[in-house]
Amino acid sequence: METPYLSIAEIEAKYPNEWVLLDRPKVNHKTLEVLGGRVILHCQTRKAFDEELLTAPRVKTSASVYTGRMDLDVVLSARL
Amino acid sequence: MNVPFDAIQPGIRIRGYVAAFSADRYVEFTLDTGATRSVLRPHILQYLGCDLTRPISTVQMTAATGVIAAPVFQIQTLHALGQFRNNFPIVAVDLPVTFAADGLLGLDFFRGQILTLDFERGRISLYPPRSRWWPFSR
Question: pTM score, two decimals?
Answer without folding.
Answer: 0.87
